[in-house]
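Sorry, explain these C-alpha cells?

***
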Amino acid sequence: DGEFWVKIDKVLFIKVVRNLIGNAVKYTPENGNIWVKIYEASGNIIFAVENNSEHIPDEEIAKLFDPFYRRELSRNRKAGGNGLGLYIVKMVADLHQFQYRFRNTREGVEIQIICTNK
C-alpha cells in the first residue's frame, strides 16, 4: 500500500540473503519446498525464508547462530559449510540493529530478519 525504506549495507545484506537461501536449499529434502517472503508487519519489513525440513529442538535453536556450530553431529562434509553462515547473518543483523528469529513451523523451519525503519 506504500513504500517502505530500510537502510542496509547492500554487500552485507546480499551475504545474508545468500546464506539463508543457500541453507534452505542445502537442508530441504528432495522434492521439498522453499518459500522466500518479504512483507510488512507492525511497521517493520520482514525478510523470511521457510523450508521443508525436520524441526530443530528449541534448546538447540540459539546455538545455530554460534560461530562454527554445525547441527550435523558427524560434522562430515555431506552438507558442506563451515558453521559460519548463520553467525554471519546474526552479525549483519546486529550491525543493522535488526532482529532475527528462527522458529519451527508447521511446514518445517523459518528464519526471519526483522528490518526496522530508522
Q: What stands out?
A: The first helix runs from residue 10 to 27. DSSP finds three helices and four strands in the chain. The radius of gyration is 14 Å.
